[in-house]
Amino acid sequence: MRYVISLALVMAALWLGLSGLFKPVILALGVASVALAAWLSWRMDVIGVEHNPGLFSWRLPVYWAWLVWQIVVANLDVARAVFNPRGHIHQRVLRVPAKQSRELTRVTYANSITLTPGTVSLRLEGNEIVVHALTRAGAEGVLSGEMGDRVCWLEDQSK
Amino acid sequence: MIYTLAALTMLATMALALARALLGPTVWDRIVAVNVFGTKTVLLVALISFVMGHDLFIDIALVYALINFIAIIAVLKLVRLQRPEEIGREGEEP
Amino acid sequence: MIVVDVLSWFLLLGGGLVGILGGVGLLRFPDFYSRLHAAGMTDTLCALMIIAGLILQAGLSLLSIKLALILLFLLFTSPTASHALARAALTDGLKPEGEQSSNN
Questions:
Q1: Domain membership of residue B25 as a residue range
Q2: What is the value of ipTM here, to two decimals?
């Protein structure tokens, strides 16, 4: 029930951000649509742990900032491969351990790996992520496990 | 002016993606290209709203971003439901 | 104000350049899995830079919130789409190059 309320609050904020209109009729329509969507997702039983508001800690923006920096670095690496495909591409398939204890944070880790260009997670097998890496630098970046440690740090706060 | 220039670069990227979609060779290459094409369409619509000075286009870009994602997942489901030999006829493995 | 303008021009043109580079990579790279990385390049940094440039121009307004939402949607959906694509191709039997060296 707590999750339903937090989901409804997030949806209401989203609705206000998208419409920007404060006439009574339109506001009533917005309330009705938020209620309908919350009721539907409760009925479909799709509300889970990921709607826990406690997951949003101050560490998330810090992690995102770091992730944006990683995206920039990885993009430069792939851009170098565009200019010189033969010399720079060194494709590998790696297995990376995911030490995170919960499914949600493991998925966060796999998504972050995919989000940085040069590495794509192919499969999540239990505690291992199968990663396809385009270049040497990308493969080393994943194998160093720095991103995994950061996601673990993210997980610590939200426990 | 700067928006028009940026919109033109988006169009160039879309043309390149379209070339890859036409060349193939596998059906997966085509889906990747169409995905890129869709993302660039979102950015192009956002840029056009600045070129024209209409804020309303932003909403279209927002909706298109969502539709594009759902469309890619739907196409993937469709392709996987097909028989393997039909996929093989689309193109050979590299 | 001129600083903000110049920064946003840099972001818009840089984003366009990254987009074109990704498109060229999409054409030049040798096989499906490598092309996926080129596509990822246009989905992440290109979108990031262009939307950031537009937000700088829009200032603090409803327009910026919508642009930020577009960026959020793109950054959340593009890895999911790439992963779904890679996984579908893998289960279909398209072998990634360099799988042998995975034991090293």
A1: 2-90
A2: 0.83
